[in-house]
Amino acid sequence: MEIYLDNGATTRPFEVVIEEMCKVFREDYGNPSSLHKKGFEAEKYIINSKEIFSKILKVNQKEIYFTSGGTESNNLAILGVANAYKRSGKHIITTAIEHSSVKNTINYLGDNDYEITVLPVDSNGLIDLEQLRDSIREDTILVSIMHVNNEISTIMPIEEIGKVIKEKNKNTIFHVDAIQSFGKLNIYPKKWNIDLVSISGHKFHAPKGVGVIYINDNIKINPIIYGGYQQNGIRSGTENVPGIAAIGLAAKMMYDNLDSNVEHLYELKRHLAGRIMNEITDTVINGIDVDKGAPHILSIRFNKVRGEVLLHSLEEKDIFVSTGSACSSNKPSKLGPLQGIGLNNEEALSTVRFSFCINNTIEELDKCVDELKNIVPLLRKFVRH
Amino acid sequence: MSNLKKAFLVKYGEIAIKGKNRYIFENILADHIRRALKPCGDFKVSKEQGRIFIEPFSDYDYDEVVDRLSRIFGLVGICPVVVLEDMDFETVKEATLMYMKDEYEDFNFTFKVESRRADKRYPLNSMEIACEVGAYLLDHIPELKVDVKKPDVKVWVEIRSRAYIYSKIIKGLGGMPVGSNGKAMLMLSGGIDSPVAGYLVAKRGVKLDAVYYHSHPYTSERAKQKVIDLAKIVSRYSGRINLNVVPFTDIQLYIYEQCPHEQLTIIMRRIMMIIAERLAEKYGAIALVTGESIGQVASQTIQSLNATNSVCNMPVFRPLIGFDKQEIVEISEKIDTYGTSILPYEDCCTIFVAKHPVTKPSLKSIIRSERRLEKIDEMIEEAINNVELVKIKPDEEE
């Protein structure tokens, strides 16, 4: 039996989502821009998905746009604001633990005339709100901060951050990368002063290759893709209708039962953390307390074990976990959130991330712990000198 | 374009001096050419007095044919030629002119006609052919200038059973045709050096099989795939490779438990050599190939090489022994293994490296340490029995 505990990297699409997609591929394959009935049938899926997202986020339907995924949403948010507002200022604020799709996009701007402030985080992965307040200036056009950290599960106090930003400079635009939080936590852009929210389908049981961005109707944003003026020209290109239908359906499923889903995820997380800490010596939970972090991510350090070796040992037992974030696991030299919260290289390399989805069970985690209890002591016998 | 008949004339180097055995080498080479060109169309490959003649009978992609030919060891030059069945001298002269007009757009260069007459019954001798063709070209293309000492372009006119005209020689790899010099077992890791070593030995006509030591979970599936990919690139030059993936974790851990850690690498390498030699015997290979070069790492000092070498009876070829890293990198870039070699997956040589590995091991003390490995023979046997065989074929054979 396969035990998949790498849901922070990607999730398995829901069966009904796959069925829905197949139906769209087979029957409703029209181009939503076409004037005929086939086009209109396809467009309905887009309208329907927009409605679902606008209800979940409590925003207007026209503020929802579809993209190819989280990376594009983050790029569009950051580059779109930078280009539209470069005459108002060139100062951008972000944090030290952002995902590479935010970090590298902002670094690119830093190399091209923009001034970047990177806020450090404490050992829990949280920024200091006063430091944020002090960093915001007249010419700060954008603050980009993630909602949930993909590696260490920190939940940033987005509502308070939004308040701080708008109090200090009402013109500063606030972007939230909600890729790891969407589907597990609520996020209310209007109430929380957020102007841009990035969402990615494959993190909550929709397929890869589809994402969403919420764009506050009151802000300007320049497109990064030009073409046939689909989606008001903000994101040209024929819409990925099967993907859009799928992401809407998956989002609805996640939020229809949000409370019980979250409760189940926390139960899994507490159970796994509790057993590992009690039954395997020399293990440390990275970052914030289990109950204060996101419900689906648990980062644990197995001292004197290389995370990657542990990963491959578990893989032999058909248990799939990750070391740092999957997107950067081939580049161990790059600084990530683990170093951001003060871990040294050794500690970062001995870390394994377990990430859950609502379909995981306590039995699966028990099997995982039982294997860990065998493997970890064995691996500790053999270490590099 | 004129309707001159185009073909390829291939020149080979060393094997031309092989005396009575020459035909064996020529046949192997012709076979390699046939196999390499099979996916490109219908070709007739024939031997012709010190040359191989490749005649197309269907449409083909010129660049692809040249690319494939230039990966075959044994070829020193590939000449796109025009072929004349009718060797009447007037025809030869006209064809040469037509060839020049096809090949060159602007004639602002110096040239010289070189001629060879294998068919001694031909009414003109080489000198006369060269002079008359040269004069004919000058008459018809007045911009041309003759320079007999350092011409920009040499135009070759060869009279054999047919006449050939060419002026361009694409450099081949040289070496000897693979399979003309027996078989060796390449110890392939995921690094930069070993694929280059394999390439260089294959260049001497040696057919290759390979062995890779896999230490799951300490090394990943991606590390194994990387080695498969490297073997695949080497096979573009060397032909098919039997890649033996040896499960090596238990042996490594056993050495780790039993032996002094500063000797780990040397002992591990000695056992790798033993396994490689056993596998070589199984496949009819009679030598080992490694990517070692003197002093590159602790296990490659001459004392260490002596210690590892002493476990095996077969000759061990180390074609990189005197190369420095930069030279090795240059070859790996040229043969296109570099980009794959630098992918960051660990191989078994790097997982249990002591901080201060011994650099001048005494063979006596290594042997003394190895006495603690009571179970090693069984473990070697088991590793060999559990080898995963991956059959590597060059792309054109798939």
TrEMBL record, chain A:
<dbReference type="InterPro" id="IPR015421">
    <property type="entry name" value="PyrdxlP-dep_Trfase_major"/>
</dbReference>
<dbReference type="GO" id="GO:0031071">
    <property type="term" value="F:cysteine desulfurase activity"/>
</dbReference>
<dbReference type="InterPro" id="IPR015424">
    <property type="entry name" value="PyrdxlP-dep_Trfase"/>
</dbReference>
<dbReference type="Pfam" id="PF00266">
    <property type="entry name" value="Aminotran_5"/>
</dbReference>
<feature type="domain" description="Aminotransferase class V">
    <location>
        <begin position="3"/>
        <end position="367"/>
    </location>
</feature>
<keyword id="KW-0479">Metal-binding</keyword>
<dbReference type="InterPro" id="IPR000192">
    <property type="entry name" value="Aminotrans_V_dom"/>
</dbReference>
<dbReference type="GO" id="GO:0046872">
    <property type="term" value="F:metal ion binding"/>
</dbReference>
<dbReference type="InterPro" id="IPR015422">
    <property type="entry name" value="PyrdxlP-dep_Trfase_small"/>
</dbReference>
<dbReference type="GO" id="GO:0051536">
    <property type="term" value="F:iron-sulfur cluster binding"/>
</dbReference>
<dbReference type="InterPro" id="IPR016454">
    <property type="entry name" value="Cysteine_dSase"/>
</dbReference>
<keyword id="KW-0411">Iron-sulfur</keyword>
<keyword id="KW-0663">Pyridoxal phosphate</keyword>
<protein>
    <submittedName>
        <fullName>Cysteine desulfurase</fullName>
    </submittedName>
</protein>
<keyword id="KW-0408">Iron</keyword>
<comment type="similarity">
    <text>Belongs to the class-V pyridoxal-phosphate-dependent aminotransferase family. NifS/IscS subfamily.</text>
</comment>
<dbReference type="InterPro" id="IPR020578">
    <property type="entry name" value="Aminotrans_V_PyrdxlP_BS"/>
</dbReference>
From TrEMBL, chain B:
<dbReference type="Pfam" id="PF02926">
    <property type="entry name" value="THUMP"/>
</dbReference>
<dbReference type="GO" id="GO:0005829">
    <property type="term" value="C:cytosol"/>
</dbReference>
<feature type="binding site">
    <location>
        <position position="291"/>
    </location>
    <ligand>
        <name>ATP</name>
    </ligand>
</feature>
<keyword id="KW-0067">ATP-binding</keyword>
<keyword id="KW-0547">Nucleotide-binding</keyword>
<keyword id="KW-0784">Thiamine biosynthesis</keyword>
<dbReference type="GO" id="GO:0140741">
    <property type="term" value="F:tRNA-uracil-4 sulfurtransferase activity"/>
</dbReference>
<keyword id="KW-0808">Transferase</keyword>
<dbReference type="Pfam" id="PF22025">
    <property type="entry name" value="ThiI_fer"/>
</dbReference>
<feature type="binding site">
    <location>
        <position position="300"/>
    </location>
    <ligand>
        <name>ATP</name>
    </ligand>
</feature>
<feature type="coiled-coil region">
    <location>
        <begin position="366"/>
        <end position="393"/>
    </location>
</feature>
<dbReference type="InterPro" id="IPR014729">
    <property type="entry name" value="Rossmann-like_a/b/a_fold"/>
</dbReference>
<dbReference type="GO" id="GO:0004810">
    <property type="term" value="F:CCA tRNA nucleotidyltransferase activity"/>
</dbReference>
<dbReference type="GO" id="GO:0052837">
    <property type="term" value="P:thiazole biosynthetic process"/>
</dbReference>
<dbReference type="InterPro" id="IPR050102">
    <property type="entry name" value="tRNA_sulfurtransferase_ThiI"/>
</dbReference>
<keyword id="KW-0175">Coiled coil</keyword>
<dbReference type="GO" id="GO:0005524">
    <property type="term" value="F:ATP binding"/>
</dbReference>
<keyword id="KW-0820">tRNA-binding</keyword>
<dbReference type="GO" id="GO:0009229">
    <property type="term" value="P:thiamine diphosphate biosynthetic process"/>
</dbReference>
<comment type="pathway">
    <text>Cofactor biosynthesis; thiamine diphosphate biosynthesis.</text>
</comment>
<comment type="similarity">
    <text>Belongs to the ThiI family.</text>
</comment>
<dbReference type="InterPro" id="IPR049962">
    <property type="entry name" value="THUMP_ThiI"/>
</dbReference>
